[in-house]
Specification:
eleven-stranded mixed sheet; alpha+beta; eight-stranded mixed sheet; 28 strands
């Protein structure tokens, strides 16, 4: 077969016999490929590397920031203002000491700062693919022309014969040719922490899920134990890792709800401003009967355009989100992308991994069955403290000596170590064996002590074919010639008569039981009857149906140490001890977090690579699903069309044995149903789904670099409860963003209407210059807005459904509030403006005739201070609130008022900002008019309270 006729990666390699796979790839298990064949295939398939598609360059990202409609309008305003200043400079119309182009410079500085702010947020390069590339092995050993050679991994081609041994990272996907006790850790790909025992001789059904393909190995996984010879079947982008890279690069980032709302806000503000400018210019031209005052009208238009754009809003939002990230870090949630802070508040569905997130990632024994009794085991984690219960009642070990006998087997037939580190119990070794040591500890059996009582002298190690292991120990008391009654611990006194050795066996319950002929009862042994055998198997099935991982234990007294390799004959005639059922136990705090989710209108969903029985048991225990709820497996999902999945996705809360593309499809189906999805993950396989989800959440402890780089948020404690805390914080942040948008835009509308009214009611000149408006929008609005951003949460924030992520920024009364308050602002200010104009133009007035403009400027700024104090709550009166519950608002009001007065009374600032000195009477009138704004808002609250309505 030529290289050109090789299969294109569509072959289902796990469903083929080894010989068939070798034929398809025209390879030889003993000699591999020739140099000519490898060269041809390298040209056909390309190097064994992950390819990266080109993204946006840094310049493109920067230029995109200036496509924002509000920034474009400000750029236009700056250019026209600069042109008018240039004309004034040429014609000598500048006032003494007036600085030309200051408005243009100030506006362009704001534009540039906002552009840089957006660029910094968006330019964080996606490093997920770079992290993915790190998972590929640099060197690999292969057979080429019957010779063993070491080559660069990128030179591997389909048909190569690759040799593996413990500690190696696998460089390509391949079909096992032969293997010896091979265990591979595939957690990065499947999400499951336990190493997988591989078997070359298997031929599996085509629909076998990724985690169950025991006759193939995958790029990026790690050999834990054993050795193997592998036929390379897929390289580069056709490997499972490559498919993930393809999916990762195909996922396009959607704008967050906040970004969509800010775009909508900009469109509305700019459109409204341009319409108002057109009305003012047209009205002025009609009033004047021509274009003789066009420059004045242009100045009015420029001021209106600057007034309508909330220049400080992007900075305030950024700081608010940054403060939110700091609060979330204290709750073990690290935010990688700022907009994710607010986005969390819109989440309607949380898709969570099981292992380590909903569970402790610690195997804990839940029940044991021995002597025809089933005991429940009480305790948390790896701590060797707890009780044994029978029918709900605590029992003593003296009443049930068979528990101690089983515990000895758990401790002796064990290669792990249980130890205390920094006050926490931890396991060195396999988590399953760790659970057995904890069980033994609860029964008062310590491994160290029993290692001296029953020192190990030989063993038959675990293998995937046998599915069991045995340990041969020397019985110290018997071996030294002491009487059994004196020299042997009572826990094993019933195990033997005068035999010097004991063999303990653990493994698959069915296979271990099949080799038993007797059963241990209390302190004695008896013949294992068929009825007892069936009862044990039924109990095993019952434990398995509850999602428990079940192991069977047996023992056998020996007169001599069995020879090496005699496991088949030695492991016969065993004495049955009992069953041990264990589970990766749920985190105790997760039940409350799931309940809080439900109260908040958020639906939790479990997506796991584990078996469906285990998934159902955990989900039911935590309240994620109810008894009898459907579990959708990866195989069933594979057969569904996208439309069928979409119809079922709201009905299923448990997904088991899923693969990477399944997770991505689930997220996409939920999104098509209008759900706003948070997705957790730790493995490489989760990266595409994390990127697709509205909020991708990676694990900080167990997560791979790939998953972290693809995520929006990292859980530092890998805990589901932290997601719920972060969601609450997201809701608080969104509520506060709405609060300060109401605050900022209400005054902006008032400014625009005031500026527009000046020429229409016949007042000379523009009441506010662009520079003064920038001061108001950045300082007078900005500082109190930042203070409002740290307003504490309302008590019912998690007792209501999430607000729709697709709701308008103006929804739930915000738009009507802005317009209403803007009009009240304008009425108050226009009334003051009329009085101030008459006052400053009255005969005998001693001050500057333009001081009316400063009174308008000062009144607008001080009115905003009253607005900031009143808007802290939509329903409670200011006098009903603790003024020190948000000390930052009081501080911002005091500081901003002082700064505003400095613009009026400090000569250099007065000259730069174009203000005029106000006497105490004029300042008092400004404060009096400004106070009306506070009185109005408080009056609205009283009115709504009387009407029995609640503001949102």
């Amino acid at each position: 077969m030529s290289a050109n006729s090789l299969p294109e990666g569509a072959a289902v390699w796990h469903s083929l016999e080894v010989d068939k796979a070798l034929d398809l790839l025209d390879s030889n298990a003993d000699s591999g490929l020739t140099p000519q064949e490898t060269q041809q295939r390298l040209q056909k398939y390309g190097p064994n590397e992950l390819e990266e598609t080109a993204g946006r360059s840094a310049w493109e990202i920067l230029l995109d920031q200036f496509k924002n409609i509000m920034l474009l309008m400000l750029i236009g305003v700056a250019l026209i203002s600069g042109f008018l200043d240039l004309m004034a400079l040429r014609e000598g119309r500048l006032k003494p000491g007036e600085v030309p182009f200051k408005d243009t410079i100030a506006i362009l500085a704001i534009v540039i700062l906002n552009g840089i702010l957006g660029y910094v947020q968006e330019s964080r390069a996606e490093k997920a693919l770079a992290a993915l590339k790190k998972m590929t092995s640099p060197l690999v050993r292969v057979l080429r022309d019957a010779r063993l050679v070491e080559i660069a991994a990128k030179e591997l081609v389909p048909g190569d014969v690759m040799l593996l041994e413990a500690g190696m990272q696998i460089a390509a996907d391949g079909r096992l040719i032969e293997q010896s006790n091979l265990q591979v850790r595939e957690s990065a790909l499947t999400g499951e922490a336990e190493a997988v025992n591989k078997q070359a001789s298997l031929k599996l059904p085509e629909e076998t899920s990724l985690g169950d393909r025991l006759n193939v190995v995958y790029q990026g996984t790690e050999v834990v134990q054993g050795r193997a010879k592998v036929l390379v079947t897929n390289t580069g982008m056709t490997t499972e890792l490559g498919k993930i890279a393809t999916m990762l690069q195909a996922v396009e980032s959607e704008p967050t709800p906040l970004q969509q709302r800010m775009t909508q806000l900009g469109n509305v503000l700019v459109t409204g401003s341009l319409i108002l400018v057109a009305i003012v210019v047209a009205g002025g031209v009609i009033r004047d009967g021509g274009f003789k005052n066009i420059q004045e009208l242009l100045e009015v238009s420029l001021s209106m355009a600057v007034a309508v754009v909330p220049e400080g809003l992007p900075a305030v939002i950024t700081v608010t989100l940054a403060l939110g990230t700091q609060r979330m870090v204290r709750q073990n949630a690290l935010i990688r992308k700022l907009p994710a802070v607010e986005t969390l508040g819109s989440v309607t569905t949380i898709c969570s991994d099981k292992t380590g997130t909903l569970t402790q990632n610690k195997m804990v024994v839940q029940s044991i069955s021995t002597n025809n009794k089933t005991f429940r085991v009480i305790g948390e984690g790896y701590a060797p403290t707890g009780d044994f219960q029978l029918n709900g009642q605590k029992i003593s070990l003296e009443e049930s000596p068979e528990i101690s006998a089983l515990a000895v087997a758990c401790a002796v037939c064990n290669d792990s170590v249980l130890q205390k580190e920094q006050g926490e119990w931890a396991i060195l070794g396999d988590p399953t064996e760790g659970a057995l040591l904890t069980l033994a500890g609860k029964a008062g059996i310590e491994k160290d002590q029993w290692n001296s009582k029953l020192p190990r002298v030989a063993e038959f190690p675990f293998s995937s074919e046998r599915k069991r292991m045995s340990v041969i120990s020397q019985v110290e008391g018997v071996a030294t010639g002491e009487a059994s009654s004196r020299g042997v611990d009572p826990a094993i006194a019933g195990f033997l008569q005068s035999e010097p050795y004991l063999m303990f066996t653990k493994g698959s319950p069915e296979l271990t039981l099949a080799r038993c002929t007797q059963i241990h009862l209390g302190n004695d042994t008896g013949i294992l009857t068929e009825q007892q055998r069936q009862k044990i198997l039924a109990e095993n099935d019952l434990m398995a149906s509850k999602g428990l991982r079940v192991l069977g234990f047996a023992y056998k007294p020996l007169l001599e140490i069995p020879p090496s390799g005699s496991d088949e004959t030695s492991e016969q005639g065993l004495v049955w001890l009992g069953l041990v059922g264990m589970l990766d136990a749920p985190r105790p705090e997760v039940r409350a977090a799931v309940q809080e989710c439900r109260e908040a209108g958020i639906r939790p969903v479990m997506i796991t690579g584990d078996h469906q029985l285990t998934a159902r048991a955990i989900a039911t225990d935590l309240g994620i699903a109810q008894e009898g709820d459907r579990v959708l497996t990866g195989q069933e999902l594979q057969r569904m069309t996208d439309q069928e999945l979409e119809q079922n996705v709201d009905l299923v809360s448990i997904y088991a044995r899923v693969s990477p593309e399944h997770k991505l499809r689930i997220v996409q189906a939920l999104q098509r149903r209008g759900r706003f999805v948070a997705m957790t993950g730790d493995g490489v396989n989760d990266a595409p789904a994390l990127k697709q989800a509205d909020i991708g959440i990676a694990m900080g402890i167990t997560g791979t670099d790939v998953s972290k780089e693809a995520s929006d948020m990292v859980l530092l404690d890998d805990n589901f409860a932290t997601i719920v805390s972060a969601t609450k914080e997201g809701r608080v942040v969104y509520t506060n963003i709405r609060r300060f948008i109401k605050y900022i835009l209400g005054s902006n509308i008032g400014e625009v209407l005031t500026i527009a009214a000046a020429p229409l009611i016949g007042l000379g000149g523009v009441p506010l210059t662009p520079l003064q408006i920038l001061w108001m929008n950045l300082v007078t609005d900005g500082l109190p807005a930042l203070a409002l951003a740290v307003e504490p949460p309302e008590p019912d924030v998690m007792q209501r459904p999430p607000f729709s992520p697709r709701e308008s920024i103006f929804a739930r009364g915000l738009g009507s509030y802005m317009i209403r308050i803007g009009i009240i602002f304008a009425i108050i200010t226009i009334a003051l403006m009329w009085w101030a104009y008459q006052h400053s133009h009255a005969p005998g007035y001693q001050g500057d005739r333009d001081s009316w403009k400063t009174m308008v400027f000062t009144s607008l700024c001080i009115a905003q201070m009253g607005h900031a104090i009143a808007i802290r709550s939509n329903n409670r009166l200011t006098i009903e609130m603790n003024p020190f519950s948000n000390i930052f608002v009081l501080a911002a009001v005091v500081v901003t008022t002082i700064l505003q007065l400095m613009l009026v009374y400090v000569p250099p600032l007065r000259d730069f900002f174009g203000t005029h000195y106000l006497n105490m009477q004029e300042l008092g009138v400004c404060i009096g008019f400004s106070a009306l704004m506070f009185v109005w808002i408080e009056g609205e609250k009283i009115f709504l309270r009387i009407m029995g309505k609640k503001a949102v």
